[in-house]
Queue: 2 jobs
Job 1
Amino acid sequence: MKLQIKGLSKTYKNGVKALDNVDLEIGTGMFGLLGPNGAGKSSLMRTISTLQSPDSGSITFGDIDVLKDQMSLRKVLGYLPQEFGVYPNMSAEKLLNYFAQLKGIASKEDRKKIIKEVLEVTNLWDVRNKSVSGYSGGMKQRFGIAQLLLNNPKLIIVDEPTAGLDPAERHRFLNVLREIGNNHTVIFSTHIVDDVRELCHELAILNGGNILYRGTPKEAEESLVGKIWMRIIERDEFDEFARNYNILSSNYNQDNTLNIRVYSDEKPHETFVEAKPQLEDVYFVALKKDRV
Ligand SMILES: Nc1ncnc2c1ncn2[C@@H]1O[C@H](COP(=O)(O)OP(=O)(O)OP(=O)(O)O)[C@@H](O)[C@H]1O
């Protein structure tokens, strides 16, 4: 089912324009919403999830008019907010049983079946008898996915789920999402470029409430072929290079030198070599252009 967002705007009471005439179309699969802190990702996610209202615009999911018929959307929605709050001292299995009852799954047999399924999908089956309050950050995030899968949602929204996870936990979490993305519409917000590169077949870059880019990661990278240039400089040369070139990113080498990546339509200087564009370059170019 397709999610269609048109002309969505939101200005908070303090005058911050969090969403500025956002148009976005999202189909089945993993969709990445990439943007820095404060870009408006959570505002967009909360609006789609019917937790807050926009000032103007429309949202439809299939034939559901999301802003008018919030209940219909909630029935098919699975939402994992940025902060899930505190978990009680209860085993994962018991807690899921409780959530399943809240979600109206009346038959004990049905609950048992779906709970087994969601524990297996999220790789928590072996630790189902352990208390969720004692889970690691990554396990808690996977539990968050398990609970939202209970009512078999058609639209899944996860807001910055990998923030604060260690690399192994992040990897495990992304694998779970990848599995789910095969047959659901999943919107996944993050400020981590690698999350999107590894996982999403389509992405949008959001900043200042505006969509700066919309397409596939591959198209995004191809759009910068011949425009990304690299060279190694000394650390203390950085300021001078920053004045003369459009530096997108710089990384330290072990010997105190820096690798810089520069955006330019032409070779900026004979000392630069052409680099293969990466999604991270696309992200920085979009943010830089937005600032000009
Ligand atoms: N309830 C609110 N009242 C006032 N301003 C808000 C409110 N919620 C968010 N904002 C502001 O709106 C802008 C967008 O915030 P939002 O939380 O949507 O961004 P985000 O991309 O999710 O960033 P983060 O990752 O930091 O949460 C920010 O400037 C934020 O300070």
Job 2
Amino acid sequence: MTSLLEVSGVSVSFDGFRAINNLSFRIGPAELRAVIGPNGAGKTTFMDIVTGKTRADSGTVRWGEKGLSLTGLSEARIAREGVGRKFQKPTVFEDQSVETNLLMALKNRRGPFAALIWRPKPAEMERMRELAGTIGLSAHLARKAGELSHGQKQWLEIGMLLAQEPKLLLVDEPAAGMTPAEREKTTEILVEAAKTRAVVVVEHDMEFVRRLNCRVTVLHEGSVLAEGSLDHVTSNKDVIDVYLGR
Ligand SMILES: Nc1ncnc2c1ncn2[C@@H]1O[C@H](COP(=O)(O)OP(=O)(O)OP(=O)(O)O)[C@@H](O)[C@H]1O
């Protein structure tokens, strides 16, 4: 399998405490992966390392066919390479419409100078509508983002990230605070997004992970404890001991 992202033997310590301990992880160019693990397992720190927010003390993070080293690159540069990240709290522009939010995300792709003289072209309007369809908000284009439900805001933000055409999308607990119907739609959006890019979903909700129907990586004390199908990892004795059985 060719990898889009290959993390090898990465360790990070905070004041002598090893938050990430010889971690290795790889994901292909069009793959959906769930990352689970107990509190403090290192899930957030892992994402911070990939996005360049936190520097690895040792190990390598390789990206793309050419194996570009991401360690040492700035967060902005890594984002430009195609790494997008969705945090738990949505950061949409509440006073702007769904349409404007999506258009602004498309506009941002073109860089700050192009944005100054930017008017949406027919192709961009079309892409905006396509994105709205993907995230289930076609009927809400004129509504202010601030009026949307929690789930709809999360989808809008996913749409805004997809507008940037990331090659890898990191998503932190997308199902938190959602209704069952919203969770189902979120599953659909993520599964669809992962057909054309890599998507890593950090999630605690096991039912949600089951519906994603993808390979699962279990982190514990900064390392991979188990990896495979959800059934495979949830029947692993170590996983039961440190995570499920508690
Ligand atoms: N900046 C920091 N300074 C000191 N310790 C940190 C820092 N960031 C993380 N840690 C510690 O590293 C460990 C891993 O934290 P991390 O947030 O990556 O875990 P997590 O798996 O995301 O947990 P959760 O499920 O609670 O979000 C924890 O023990 C945490 O306290």
